């Protein structure tokens, strides 16, 4: 049985992995579109926000079904607050797009840098997920490599379409 702290860390890692994959997929699609850095950033944060609301709603609905009573406003707010961590991976491209807007970075390099950083985030989250559960270092590296492979696949698709 997971402790409350381990369960909380596991849920946060789940949402960060989820958000990273969503952002990588969006970066792949948005780079080919004729968007400004601001509209790309808005698209990313709106998508991540919608994901957080959907996650909170589905968890609340599951709680209602399991307990056969309505979720309180307080509980719904807590569910939404915990689900909003999915927005965290959107900070990476936001910083890159702000650098584009300030003229410090070309838009293409912002997309590339954000993609590779998110692949690293996937690796780190996989590694941490294993070590929090008490796994050995080599197993954490294996988990990180396995999870980041999905990000690498998205980056590879992006490179094939550019």
TrEMBL record:
It comes from Pseudomonas shahriarae. Keywords: Membrane, Transmembrane, Transmembrane helix. The keyword Membrane applies. The keyword Transmembrane applies. The chain crosses the membrane at residues 16-35, 41-62, 83-104, 110-129, 141-160. It comes from the Bacteria. This is Uncharacterized protein.
